[in-house]
């Protein structure tokens, strides 16, 4: 009986340590993100641009996106995102959506060249703690074949004292609701990686760490 009470006390201390990060609201600003990755489009060819809208809780929602080009003589684009490469050069492609309160948009540079060249499907970021526990390190998120790989660099470190530490991908850094659960953290120092199936490199905005048993945030890192 004494041993059980002592264990419960230790568990309570762990929870108190996690609750250094005290957030109230789970809502965020909606985001519209161009998800196409292309460096250049072959002249006299077409290219389908795509975008994803994430609402105020970070959930992807189907909306009618408007598309435009800053120079229609180089690339023209219709409201379905289908672009026509007309002349060599560079222009800006804009995706926008009016949610009734404000217009949300995203912009990317688009080039027209002799061949269509895909942009490297890779993003980077840095994890930092939001609690009293150690958590830090640089990471890279990249597509490898049909999988997504989340790779942490040698400067990564996390406290092994955290109860039930899990890592997620999410568009809402305040909650694990609607997040993609990668799995439990088993490596607490140094270079390591996670292989993630059926996820695109542009699907999420943050890497997120939570004490899963208590649903308490420990740290996060924006995917740039």
Compact summary:
This protein has 224 residues and is mostly beta strands. It has one helix at residues 2-18; strands at 31-34, 40-42, 46-48, 51-54, 60-61, 66-69, 75-77, 82-85, 89-98, 103-113, 122-129, 135-144, 147-152, 157-158, 165-170, 180-184, 192-197, 206-211, 216-222. The strands form four sheets. Strands 11, 12, 13, 14, 15, 16, 17, 18 and 19 form a nine-stranded antiparallel beta sheet that branches. A four-stranded mixed beta sheet has the order 2-10-9-6, with no helix packed on it. A three-stranded antiparallel beta sheet has the order 1-4-5, with no helix packed on it.
Any overview of this molecule?
- The protein is mainly β.
- The protein has 2 domains: 2-25 and 121-222, Sandwich (Immunoglobulin-like), CATH 2.60.40; 38-113, Immunoglobulin-like.
- Helix content is 8%, strand content 46%.
- It is built from 1 helix and 19 strands.
- It has one helix at 2-18; strands spanning 31-34, 40-42, 46-48, 51-54, 60-61, 66-69, 75-77, 82-85, 89-98, 103-113, 122-129, 135-144, 147-152, 157-158, 165-170, 180-184, 192-197, 206-211, 216-222.
- The strands form 4 sheets. Strands 11, 12, 13, 14, 15, 16, 17, 18 and 19 form a 9-stranded antiparallel sheet that branches. Strands 2-10-9-6 form a 4-stranded mixed sheet, with no helix packed on it. The protein has a 3-stranded antiparallel sheet with strand order 1-4-5, with no helix packed on it.
- Strand 18 (206-211) and strand 19 (216-222) form a beta hairpin.
- The longest helix is centred in the first third of the chain and has 17 residues, at 2-18.
- The chain is elongated.
- It starts with a helix and ends with a strand.
- The model is unreliable at 1-24 (pLDDT under 50).
């Amino acid at each position: 009986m004494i041993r059980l009470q002592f264990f419960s006390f230790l568990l309570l201390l762990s929870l108190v340590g996690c609750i250094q990060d005290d957030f109230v609201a789970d809502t965020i600003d909606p985001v519209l993100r161009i998800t196409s990755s292309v460096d250049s489009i072959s002249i006299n060819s077409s290219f389908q641009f795509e975008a994803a809208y994430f609402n105020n809780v970070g959930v992807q929602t189907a909306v009618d996106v408007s598309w435009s080009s800053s120079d229609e003589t180089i690339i023209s684009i219709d409201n379905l995102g289908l672009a026509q490469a007309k002349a060599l050069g560079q222009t800006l492609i804009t995706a926008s959506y009016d949610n009734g309160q404000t217009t949300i948009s995203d912009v990317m540079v688009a080039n027209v060249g002799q061949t269509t060249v895909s942009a490297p499907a890779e993003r980077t970021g840095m994890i930092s703690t939001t609690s009293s526990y150690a958590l830090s390190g640089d990471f890279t998120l990249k597509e490898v074949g049909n999988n997504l790989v989340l790779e942490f660099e040698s400067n990564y470190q996390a406290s092994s004292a955290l109860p039930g530490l899990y890592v997620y991908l999410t568009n809402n850094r305040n909650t694990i609701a609607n997040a993609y659960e990668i799995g439990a953290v088993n490596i607490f120092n140094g270079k390591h990686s996670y292989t993630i199936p059926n996820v695109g490199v542009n699907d999420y905005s943050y890497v997120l760490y939570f004490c899963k048993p208590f649903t308490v945030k420990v740290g996060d890192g924006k995917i740039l």
